[in-house]
């Protein structure tokens, strides 16, 4: 049945080459943990991507209950965590996943560094990777404010102090990021918009570029 | 193992195994999120409580609008809702009707139509209902106005939620 549906579509729009292009690629022996177990270090990039997918999915579901508003934000988080079925699990996935992404990404960076994979001709991909690193850190930072509890509030106060310490434009930057003179209603909506729309958009674009370049250039050779 | 050829190649076996394990892991990941999202349809209804409408002495034989306020638990907020209930006495019986038109949900008024002063009238599509809520044949509504269950405690009328009549 499935085969026939697939054939019907494939007959008309010829999708086989599309997924073949994505799925069929060589996995060299030196990156295959089945051949050398130590090659598991090559999994960290994929694991970073996998946890990012979990973050995006769980985040999409969390926004069904969350509101970025100073009166209701904390109450809505408490509600979704304690009253909604599996709320603790879904929020837990997002909360712990945020740390896992950063750990995995760091291990991936170390692997690339110590195998020298960033060297010619892959310098541009290293640069894109570092941009992804910054975007992920910014996602962690903006997401931290959203539960609107004490920890969130005071962590953001520290963030803004750091921003304000930038020479010359510090104060302007602080107002821009806080959306006003205090950490409040406008800071929360700003961080929410950045966390949920701007940064994920940037992240998906950068990840696409990262992956296209990997496929173009292939995986770097053995040590 | 039988000697028959089952025509499952090594590649096919691996495909099935990997798809099975992958599907299981994917389901384990997505299931909590789906259950999380569909929670509202699985939460128990809070209906059943009756709320104070007005003292019985306010009622006459003529339907009058009374405002009904009640609280609804809405996620992390408690909303105070306000509905209008048209109530009157039919002999000793209290009749309390919901003014939501059963056609498309506009609000009806008693005596809203000059030509039919003894009927409920919906201005949207000229639907009409008799004083007991029965829909007038030939007008758009297909069922009577919904009716509240009532209870009288210490001379005060309490109403539940509107229910379809019959």
UniProtKB/TrEMBL annotation, chain A:
Q: Which UniProt keywords apply?
A: Membrane, Transmembrane, Transmembrane helix
Span-the-membrane segments of this chain are 39-67, 96-114, 126-146, 192-214
Pfam entry (one):
Cytochrome_B
What InterPro entries does the annotation carry?
Cyt_b/b6_N, Cytb/b6-like_sf, Cytochrome_b_N_euk/bac, Di-haem_cyt_TM
Keyword check for Membrane: yes
- Specify the Cytochrome b/b6 N-terminal region profile domain's residue ranges: 5-223
Xref: PROSITE patterns: CYTB_NTER (PS51002)
Domain of life from the UniProt record: Bacteria
The cross-references to NCBIfam families, in alphabetical order and at most eight, read: cytb_ExtP (NF040969), PRK03735.1 (NF002990)
Protein name (record): Menaquinol-cytochrome c reductase cytochrome b subunit
Which species expresses this protein natively?
Answer: Geomicrobium sediminis
Organism phylogeny: Bacteria, Bacillati, Bacillota, Bacilli, Bacillales
């Amino acid at each position: 049945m499935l085969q026939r549906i697939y054939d019907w579509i494939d007959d008309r729009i010829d999708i086989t080459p599309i997924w073949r292009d994505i799925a069929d690629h060589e996995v060299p022996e030196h990156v295959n943990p089945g051949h050398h177990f130590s090659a598991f270090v090559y999994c960290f990039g994929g694991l970073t991507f996998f946890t990012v997918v979990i973050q995006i999915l769980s985040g999409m579901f969390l926004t069904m209950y969350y509101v970025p508003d100073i009166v209701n934000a904390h109450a809505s988080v408490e509600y979704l965590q304690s009253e909604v079925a599996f709320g603790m699990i879904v929020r837990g996935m997002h909360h712990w996943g945020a740390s896992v992404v950063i750990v995995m990404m760091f291990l991936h960076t170390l692997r690339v560094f110590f195998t020298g994979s960033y060297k010619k001709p892959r310098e541009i991909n290293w640069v894109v990777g570092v941009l992804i690193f910054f975007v992920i850190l910014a996602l962690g930072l903006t997401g931290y404010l959203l539960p609107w509890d004490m920890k969130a509030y005071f962590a953001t106060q520290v963030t803004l102090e750091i921003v304000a310490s930038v020479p010359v434009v510090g104060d302007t930057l602080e107002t821009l990021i806080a959306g006003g003179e205090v950490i409040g209603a406008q800071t929360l909506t700003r961080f929410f918009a950045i966390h949920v729309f701007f940064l994920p958009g940037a992240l998906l674009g950068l990840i696409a570029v990262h992956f296209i370049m990997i496929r173009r250039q292939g995986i770097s050779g053995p040590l | 193992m039988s000697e028959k050829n089952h025509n499952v190649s090594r590649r096919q076996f691996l495909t099935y195994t990997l798809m099975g394990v992958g599907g299981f892991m994917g389901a384990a990941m997505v299931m909590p999120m789906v259950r999380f999202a569909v929670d509202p349809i699985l939460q128990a209804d809070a209906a059943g409580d009756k709320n104070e409408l007005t003292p019985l002495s306010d009622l006459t034989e003529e339907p009058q609008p009374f405002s009904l306020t009640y609280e609804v638990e809405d996620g992390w907020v408690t909303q105070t809702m306000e509905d209008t209930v048209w109530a009157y006495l039919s002999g000793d019986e209290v009749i309390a009707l919901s003014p939501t038109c059963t056609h498309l949900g506009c609000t009806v008024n008693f005596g809203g139509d000059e030509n039919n002063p003894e009927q409920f009238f919906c201005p949207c599509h000229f639907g009409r209902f008799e004083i007991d809520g029965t829909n007038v044949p030939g007008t758009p509504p297909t069922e009577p106005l919904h009716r509240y269950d009532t209870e009288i405690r210490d001379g005060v009328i309490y109403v539940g939620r509107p229910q379809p009549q019959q």
